[in-house]
Design a protein that fits this description.
167 residues, alpha/beta, six-stranded parallel beta sheet, 21% strand, globular
Length: 167
């Protein structure tokens, strides 16, 4: 893990398949190096129902102090072994701060507790967040879509100026 992140120190744009991090379990509470140059992070095959998903996202964000855009592409949860499914808590990560994050995009968001907890955390900890674009999973029922939208628009947000788009 240390060797991998040592190689990434100077990178500005990173797209990574989320399940690659599961090869490094147990995941450390802190990365061995800071990704100070990273401005854009895209994580594909994100599975919010995975028990390690939230800790991995928080650690990556915490280690990327100059991150400006975060894009998460959610995948089907059918690819997971049920022993890895569950909810996580973010109590240990209340110190996270996204001082430079100005854009968040999540594609195919479902109504999972972990995903909504993560979304509320980012809204609360990103003082310069200007744009949030959420694309909901096509097969969500209308009442679930409404519930997610309600949570988004009623959650505390550190940024006074923000544009939230839910589609």
């Amino acid at each position: 893990m240390a060797d991998l992140f040592e190689c990434l120190q100077g990178i500005e744009y990173l797209t990574v398949w989320c399940f690659i991090f599961l090869s490094f379990l147990p995941f450390p509470r802190k990365l061995p190096t800071t990704l100070v140059h990273l401005k854009y992070l895209c994580m594909e095959c994100v599975c919010f129902c995975h028990i390690y998903a939230l800790p991995i996202f928080v650690i990556l964000i915490r280690s990327s102090p100059n991150l400006e855009k975060l894009k998460l592409v959610v995948t089907e949860d059918e690819v997971l072994d049920e022993s890895y499914m569950g909810s996580s808590t973010l109590e240990d990560y209340s110190d996270i701060s996204s001082e430079h994050l100005n854009e968040l995009e999540i594609l195919h968001l479902r109504n999972y507790e972990n995903g909504l907890v993560f979304l509320k955390l980012i809204l609360a900890k990103s003082p310069v967040l200007k744009k949030v674009k959420i694309s909901l999973w096509d097969q969500l029922a209308k009442d679930e879509k409404f519930q997610i939208s309600k949570i988004l628009f009623s959650s505390p947000c550190a940024s006074p100026v923000r544009k939230i788009i839910v589609s």
